[in-house]
TrEMBL record:
Enzyme kind, highest EC tier: isomerase
Known catalytic reactions: UDP-alpha-D-glucose = UDP-alpha-D-galactose
Pathway it works in: Carbohydrate metabolism; galactose metabolism
Subunit field text: Homodimer.
Origin species: Sediminicola arcticus
Protein name: UDP-glucose 4-epimerase
Gene that encodes it: galE
Amino acid sequence: MKILVTGGLGFIGSHTVVQLQNKGFEVVIIDDLSNSSEDVLGRITSITGKAPSFEKLDLREKGKVTDFFKRHQNIEGVIHFAASKAVGESVQKPLLYYENNINTLVYVLQELSQKEKAGFIFSSSCTVYGQADTMPITEDAPVKPAESPYGNTKQIGEEIIRDTCKVTKGLNAIALRYFNPMGAHPSAAIGELPIGVPQNLVPFITQTGVGLREQLSVFGDDYPTSDGTCIRDYIHVVDLAKAHVVALERLLEGKNKENYEVFNVGTGTGSTVLEVIKSFEKVSGKKLNYKIVDRRAGDITSAYADTTKANNILGWKAESTLDEAMKSAWDWELKVRNR
Ligand SMILES: NC(=O)c1ccc[n+]([C@@H]2O[C@H](COP(=O)([O-])OP(=O)(O)OC[C@H]3O[C@@H](n4cnc5c(N)ncnc54)[C@H](O)[C@@H]3O)[C@@H](O)[C@H]2O)c1
C-alpha cells in the first residue's frame, strides 16, 4: 500500500516513515525542506534498508499538489505532518502560520476527497485543550480558545477535517493529539534537529548538556505542582510514530467506527520540569546548568493525557520510560555534535 507522508523528513515524520517501512508500506515523502534536510533520506534508508521516494515540493503550491496526486493515483493514505510549528514565531507571523498550516491541509484534503476511499491522519496537539479543568485529559475535555495562532491552526485544522468528513463518504480521518514528543530513534541516525534556539525543553536540555547553550532557564517554580515546576506528558517519538501506523491501519482496514475520530497520544504520566532535568542528569552522568526564573507568559500549569481511548480502541500504548526517551535524546545530541 502506498502512503504519502507530508513533512516526512521532519522530526516526527522521519520516525513514522521508518515504522511504516518496517511494516511493509511503500512510502512517498513530500517535504519542502523548510525545517529539515535532504540527508535525512539517507539516514532513514540506513535504518530500514529501503529508500523512501521523495519529492521536494511546497504544499502551498496548489497546482503542484494536484499534479502530484495525478502522478500518484494509487496513494491510499496520507499522514499529514507538514506545518510550521514554532508557537512564538506564530504570534509574530500569524499569516505565515495560517497560510502554511491551513492551505496545505485544504489542498491535500481536496485531492483526497476525489478518491473513492482514502485514509488521512492529522498531526494535532494537546494545545487544543489549553489548561484543562481536570487531569488526566480525556478526548471529551472541551477545546479551549487557542493561546497562539499556531494552536489555532490545529483547532481550525480539526474542524476542517471534521466538516469535510461529514460530507465525504470515502474519506476516513483520525486526528492524533500529541502531548510532548521527545527522543530519537535508538540508532541515533534520526532525531530532532531544531534550527536556532530550541523551543522545546528536551533539545534545550541536551544542547545545554553538550555545551551549545550556556544555561537552561526554568520558567517558574511556584506552580501548584509537587516541586513547583510545570507538568507535561513526554512521549518517546518512536512510540508516537507507532501510534500513526496503528491509526492508519485502522482506517485502511475499515475498522473505524466513525469517519472522523480523535485520539490522545501521550504516556498518561506527567513529569515536572525538574524531574525531566533529573532524568537527563541520570542518563548522561552530567550536572545540568539551570536556573529558576520568573514564570513565562502563556505557560499552563499541567497537561497530561488520559490514554484509555487509544489503549482500548487502537490497541496502542506508549512503551518507553522518560529515562529511555531521554537516553535516546542524549545519544542523538552527542552524535549530532560529533558529526
Ligand atoms: N514536535 C512537537 O512537539 C509537536 C507537538 C504537537 C504537534 N506537532 C505537529 O506535528 C507535526 C510534525 O512536527 P515535527 O516536530 O516533526 O516538525 P518538523 O518541523 O520537524 O517537521 C515538519 C516538516 O514539514 C515540512 N514542511 C513544512 N511546511 C511545508 C510545506 N508547505 N510543504 C512541504 N513541507 C513542509 C518541514 O520542512 C519539516 O520537515 C507538525 O504538524 C506539528 O505542528 C508537533
